[in-house]
Amino acid sequence: MSILCFIGGVRVIKLKRDFYERETLEVSKELLGKYIVRTTEEGITVGKIIEVEAYMGSLDAAAHTFNGKRSERTEVAFGPGGYAYVYLIYGMYHCFNIVTNVAEKPEMVLIRAVEPIEGIELMQKRRKTEVLRNLCSGPGKLCQAMDITRKLHGIDLCGDNLYLLDNEKIQEENILSTPRINIDYAGEAKEYPWRFLIKDNKLISTLKHVKK
After folding, report:
1. Residue 2: what pLDDT?
2. Taking the domain 12-198, which CATH number applies?
3. For residues 120-158, b (16+ Cβ closer than 10 Å) or e, as one string?
4. So what's the pLDDT on residue 99?
């Protein structure tokens, strides 16, 4: 298992388990700027994380694991951090989440948008568009562009098929926090400012809650 990779000729290191097994809100912010790498027979795609949402497990009414709800689907969230949690919405769009914190703390971070870095032609083929703004500016879009499907649910992100690389740390003054998107069912939890994005990035999923 290689821990060194090159992106744009620059050497970067694969994130290890201890990066993920920390407090979820901290991990959420530090995921911004990191690279997602997806390796398939078609080729390699790389995206820079620019927008995420934290889901805080048992105490979060917007989380799949609210009140400790345990099922075949959510079981991976109760394990150690650094695993993929992938599910379908509306029966057709995949969403890629990263399990965080330690075992028995079923928390995760949804990757809402990435900035395409490498494998852009392959992303365009999969998304059937050449418009950069339409490739990965939403959880379903990025999953289609990077071929992230339910087949990867539970995969170890310290492996070689889907993993993250370290990169610059985005400074706090360049991070914007807002309420999360499309969780009106979650009562007061819908107002929690647990969506984090890189300020002024034009490829985020939506300007909702972002002050102009």
Report:
1. 45
2. 3.10.300.10
3. bebbbebbeeeeeebbbbbbbbbbbbbbbeeebbbbebb
4. 98
